[in-house]
Prior knowledge:
By secondary structure, this protein is mostly helical. It contains 22 helices and two strands.
Amino acid sequence: MSLKRSAALTPILDKYASRNFLHIEYGSILSNHISHGLIALGRLGAPEERMDRFGAYYCQNRLMGYKPEPPHHHDVKKINNSQELMEFRGRFKNFLGITNFFLEEMKTEGTTAKQLVTKYAPHVMEGLSGRLLHALITLGYALEANHDDLIIDGLSYMYFAYKPVGQHIDFNLDDLARGANPDSQPFTSRNVLELVEAIKDSGKLDGIADKWEGVHPYQGWGGAFQPRVAIMGDKAGHIFDEFMAPLLKNPSLILPFIKDRDEGGDNYKTVITELFDGIIWLYNEMSEYNNGSDFILLHGITSCWSLAHILPLLSSEQRFEAIIYYVRTLLAAWGAKWETEDFRIGTHPFERNFNEQHTEIPEFSVPIGHVLASSKEYDEHPTKLVYTCLDRLTSPYFLPVKSENYTNMLKVIAARQYDLLPWIQQSNES
């Protein structure tokens, strides 16, 4: 099954996702997801009526208890240059002032929104953890839709919500290559899971979030998870760096970026593909274990997919930095998760054979038909994941899928979002 873009997507985005209609956040704490949901629906071929219904519902209803907010016209300060722009990085203020700065540069310099991403995104990739990766996700979906206004919003949100994890690292690819360990195993999806497991088993993160939760400046945040991730980033960054140190000496992780820089090409896709595949394999394992969707790992999938859309607009060195900062953010999020939940890797997920386990794996058309026809599905998260799974099969931002088993896993993940797996339905009925 192939993706097809709804002809009504752009006008629907103009209608509901405009910064002139809603603020980028709900309750000044939760990210506005409306553009993500509409883009996923539109790329799945949703009719105008279905997207219109989703947009209207999202704009009129609370999100996790928080009301949608009108644009913050009361919080606009003119930004005159890039130095002043940096002063608003990570302050969660002046969103419209930031967007106005980029719009003015587009007008006066004749640049495109994507060119602005190339110029300005490198200065905020270190802080991509902001709002639990939702600024990154917003920009990635905007790039997928190729919608200039939303690209500006996503880039502005990266500045608005900038939040680094750990200390700044100075990267030099040539220095890293000279210090590389020739005995390192090739970087693969397995490394991602083994890194998570090693940190978890070390016990070095135990009690950190509990100690600081509710203490200034972490009190008064919405929900319980955001402050815990921020605490992990601020107080445990050195622990993540300790465990990530071998990655910075792994030739198979470093050399693709040097080759792209010196010779051109897209060798970096080997790295982002392995990273994405590690995250999605782990997501499926946790979902199998919990018999349901794993909400935190779901955001790992959509954020990595979004990062893959941004990387082509960056230089080789900047791509490498972005991936390292991204991995460190994932470790902070997963560290916060396993302190409060049973975080299990268990049987190595790469050994799971879907053909042997299940003979009735639904095709993508089943969950897609469900979400497009439904009059009740307003949570955009399952829709986004169904779309991401289908897009992975043909996406130019990753290496091609070669395994039927991997394809079947994507189908299982998509169908699970709406309880459409036959073996689960049969279990529930019994």
